[in-house]
Specification:
By secondary structure, the chain is mostly helical. It contains ten helices and no strands.
Length: 229
C-alpha cells in the first residue's frame, strides 16, 4: 500500500513535538502487587516513586577539604627518566667507596633532585655531590655501629659486577689496587674513568678546582698502573 507524502510529513511533525500524555481512568488504575516483606513498612516508604537519574546520589568521591600536598618540581617525567638511565650506575659505583647501601644513597639523592623547585646549573654535578654527602654520612653511621674497622672492611660489598669480558686484570685485583690509593686519587679515578664526569664536574662535586682534580687523577692513574703490573 502506498504511503502519501502528507502522512509522512505528519509523522515527522509528531516526532518533533512532545507526546501527549494519556490519562488513565481511575477505574483502570492498577495497584502494584504488595510484597509480603514490605507489608510492615510505612506506606510512604513502600509506595515511594523511583527517583530519577538526577536525584540519585553521586558515586564520585567527595572533594576533601584537605587536598594532598603537591611536591614542586622543575622537571618533567621524561627528563628525570633520562637522567636516571644515564647516571644511576655511576652513582651507585661512586657511593660504594664509602657505604654499604649505595643503591639507597643513589635513589635518595635522585629523589632530592626530583623535588627541587629550581634546576641546578649542572644537574649531573649536583647529583654526584649529593650522593657524596649522603654516602659519607652513611659511612659515619656504619662506623658508629661497628666496633672494629676491619670487620666493616670485610663486609663491604664488591665495587664491580663480575664481567665475562677478557681482560688483563680481574675485578678483585682492580678493587684491591684501588683500596691502596689515597682517598682523593681513588675518588678522582672512579668519577672520571667509570662515571664519565668531566674534571669541571668533578671539581664541583669535590669542591676543588679542575686542575687539582686532573692532577690527582693523573697521579692516581700512574700509581694504579704500578700496582697492577
Amino acid at each position: 500500500m502506498a504511503v502519501s507524502r502528507e502522512f509522512l510529513a505528519e509523522v515527522q511533525q509528531r516526532r518533533g513535538s512532545p507526546r501527549p500524555s494519556l490519562a488513565v481512568p481511575p477505574s483502570l488504575e492498577l495497584s502494584p502487587p504488595v510484597d509480603p516483606l514490605l507489608s510492615d513498612l510505612p506506606t510512604a516508604v513502600a509506595s515511594s516513586p523511583t527517583p530519577s537519574r538526577s536525584e540519585l546520589p553521586s558515586l564520585a568521591p567527595a572533594a576533601s577539604s584537605q587536598s594532598l600536598p603537591t611536591i614542586p618540581s622543575c622537571w618533567t617525567g621524561e627528563e628525570l627518566a633520562a637522567i636516571w638511565d644515564a647516571q644511576h650506575l655511576g652513582l651507585i659505583l661512586y657511593a660504594r667507596q664509602w657505604c654499604q647501601t649505595p643503591e639507597d644513597v643513589a635513589q635518595e639523592s635522585f629523589w632530592q633532585l626530583a623535588c627541587l623547585a629550581e634546576r641546578p646549573q649542572d644537574p649531573t654535578a649536583w647529583l654526584y655531590r649529593a650522593v657524596r654527602n649522603r654516602a659519607i654520612s652513611a659511612l659515619r653511621g656504619e662506623i658508629r655501629r661497628r666496633q672494629h674497622e676491619a670487620n666493616y672492611a670485610q663486609s663491604r660489598p664488591e665495587w664491580f659486577c663480575p664481567s665475562t669480558a677478557a681482560g688483563p686484570w680481574s675485578a678483585v685485583e682492580v678493587q684491591a689496587a684501588l683500596q691502596k690509593l689515597s682517598e682523593q686519587q681513588r675518588e678522582m679515578i672512579v668519577l672520571h674513568l667509570w662515571s664519565g664526569l668531566t674534571f669541571e664536574q668533578i671539581a664541583t662535586v669535590t669542591n676543588t678546582s679542575g686542575s687539582t682534580a686532573h692532577r690527582q687523577y693523573a697521579a692516581g692513574l700512574q700509581a694504579l698502573r704500578k700496582l697492577l703490573q
